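Entry 14. Ran structure prediction on the chain below.
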Amino acid sequence: MFKHILLATDGSAASTHAAALAIGLARSHGAQLTALYVVDPYPYLGLGEANPMGFQAYMSAAMEHASQALAAIDKLAAEGGPKVTVTPRVVEDVGASVGILQTARELGADLIVVGSHGRSGIARLMLGSVASRVVAESTVPVLVAR
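Output, structure tokens:
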């Protein structure tokens, strides 16, 4: 049924659960699986030019976190049955929902899997703002994992 699954991750517990679901679906459908980590834009507009070290530190930390989150998914894909090949992808300088939707279009994904709550602070009190935007704007099915 599914040929290409896009898994959005941020390294949170909800995205780890979403990863397990996406891996299971990819395994049972023989689908491609792309794991996507979106690096949010630098939050201190105008300060990057005045303090390039702040921007570099932010990007370094974000890329390290992305690497860890994607490695955890790859490890999970190797467990519990035939290994699912995970194609890692990092998108920078866009909001998470925009990055997820653009990547799904670019790859021709026919399913997007996201966690219900991610790392976005106060949005954890309800369905994650990223998940709700992806659900509202996606042209392909979205599986939201609790």
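The radius of gyration is 15 Å. Will compare against last week's run tomorrow.
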